[in-house]
Structure formats: C-alpha cells, structure tokens
Design brief:
By secondary structure, the protein is α/β, with parallel strands linked by helices. It is built from 11 helices and 8 strands. Helix 7 crosses helix 9 and helix 7 (163-191) packs across helix 10.
C-alpha cells in the first residue's frame, strides 16, 4: 500500500488526495496549525491525522504539496528539514524559477522531486482535473500509478522540473486574469448603466467570461488565493522577459477583494467591493443561512 502525505487538505488538496485513497492509498495529513475547515474536509474524506510533520515525513512514500503559492517554498523547506527521502510532488502554482528552488531544497534532503500542476476544478464524480507532471521518468510513473483509475488524469510532460509550473502559469495568466478583467469591465458598464448592452455584445460571441456574471462572486471569494498566483505569473513573465503588467494589475484588482475570503455574496456585492479597496465596510454580504 502506498502511503501519501497531503500538505494541505484545502478544497483541491483534500479532493485530490481522496482520489488516491479511493484507489487504495493510505493518506496522511497533519492537523497542526490547520483551520477548522481543513479539519472538517479531512474528516469528510477519511484522511488519517498524524501528530506532527516529522511523523508524516517518516511514514509517507509520497508527499503531495497543494497549498497557496506564497507558502510553497516554506512548505518544501519544512519537509526538507525532516530529512524526507521519498517522492515529493509540488502541485502549486509557482513560477518555474520558484519550482527549481523547491526542487533544489528537497533534493538536498535526499528526496526525488516531481513538478506538478493541477488544472481544473476539484475532482468529483463529474469533474476530472488534469495533473500535469514533469520530472524523472520513474517518478512520473509512480504518480500515474497513484491516481490510475481515479478522476484525476495524470499527464506526463517531457523535459525537466519547471515544465508543469510553466504550463500552469501560462494557463492561469489568461484564465484567472481574464476573470478579473471581465468583472472590472462589467463594473464600469454598470457604473454608467450600460451593463445589459455589454452583455448583449458578449453573448454575440461563442464564449466569453463577460457573459458569466454569476462567476464574479466566486472570483471575489477566491481572490485571496488567486492574487498570489497572479504575482507568480508576473514573475514567470519577467523571467521570460515578457510584459508582466497585466498579471500585476490583475493581482492588484484581486487584492481589493482580499477581505472577502470564502464569503458568499451576490454579483452586485462583488462589484461594489471593487470600489472599496481592502474593506467590506458598508457592504452587507449574504448569510449562509
């Protein structure tokens, strides 16, 4: 039985780890310092708690890191400090240069590193995200075997560590930035009373985020995680000597939603908060009840 350690069971990490568990893996997680929401998710998915990171590192054959990108290097350093010598899969949205630093940190501890990137929504019966992976061939085979038969579809990439991270941020630079740009565009139209005309224009196209107004509250609620990812996109673009201003600007837009972390709201509330940087004062949000 393969033993998988998940760092940490957020909405994506817990669901991905549960898919490995469904295929016979034993999945460990460390509750120390984690939120009540993380604990609830771990319990719902049947993940096995351990007392400390050292215990997880000693027992796990594979450690999968899926955390906010701003903490990816910190998490990797903490695992390396435990002298983990198994297979470390970094599934975070970090720049290729950050991924290479993570690989260097983990490798010094004696572990094998796979650069991973999850594209899509958390896996369910109807949703099958892709897990892109780059690294040594034998390590990629182990990752593929871990999720074989599950709703997580592993795509092995040729090339060295950094390839999966580059792919993830290439996708994110459009997918996430365009969500924010659509919301700002709609907010401007609403300010002048022409939002219906804007929607009419958008609906004339085969597909447009401008027509998906119901997604703006979800974007606002997730902006606390997406803003750091846009900053990583900017770093990746800088590394490639490409313009990074749009990614930086998208991060700045998302920071205006920073106080709305995981809160339910209406489209109007999400747009109103764009006028109120770093604050929800005067905006009455929806009640979960």
């Amino acid at each position: 039985m393969t033993v998988l350690g998940i760092l940490h069971p957020g909405s994506m990490g817990a669901a991905v780890a549960a898919q490995a568990k469904s295929r016979g893996a034993r999945v460990l997680w460390c509750p120390t310092g984690r939120s009540a929401a993380s604990r609830k998710r771990a319990e719902e998915y049947g993940l096995e708690p351990v007392a400390a990171l050292r215990e997880l590192s000693e027992q796990a054959d594979i450690v999968l890191s899926i955390c906010p990108p701003a903490h990816a290097e910190e998490v990797a350093a903490a695992v390396a400090a435990q002298s983990f010598s198994g297979l470390y899969v970094d599934g975070n949205a970090v720049s290729p240069a950050a991924m290479r630093r993570i690989a260097e940190t983990i490798s010094r501890a004696g572990a094998t590193v796979v650069d991973g990137a999850v594209v899509g929504s958390p896996p369910t019966g109807s949703k099958s995200p892709r897990l892109y992976a780059a690294g040594p061939g034998d390590a990629l085979a182990r990752v593929t075997a871990l999720f074989k038969g599950s709703t997580v579809r592993v795509h092995e990439l040729p090339g060295a560590v950094g390839q999966a991270s580059a792919l993830k941020l290439s996708y994110s630079s459009y997918q996430k930035a365009s969500r924010a740009l659509a919301a700002v565009s709609y907010a401007l139209a609403a300010e002048h009373g022409v939002e219906e005309e804007l929607l009419d224009i958008a609906r004339g196209r085969a597909s447009s985020y401008l027509a998906e107004t119901e997604y703006f509250p979800k974007t606002a609620a997730r902006a606390w995680r997406w803003a750091p990812e846009m900053e990583e996109v900017a770093r990746a673009l800088d590394e490639a000597e490409l313009p990074s201003e749009l990614a930086t600007a998208a991060a700045a837009v998302m920071e205006r939603w920073g106080a709305l972390r995981d809160k339910p709201m209406t489209v109007e509330q999400a747009l109103t908060t764009l006028h109120t940087p770093m604050s929800v004062e005067g905006v009455e949000l929806e009640s979960k009840g």
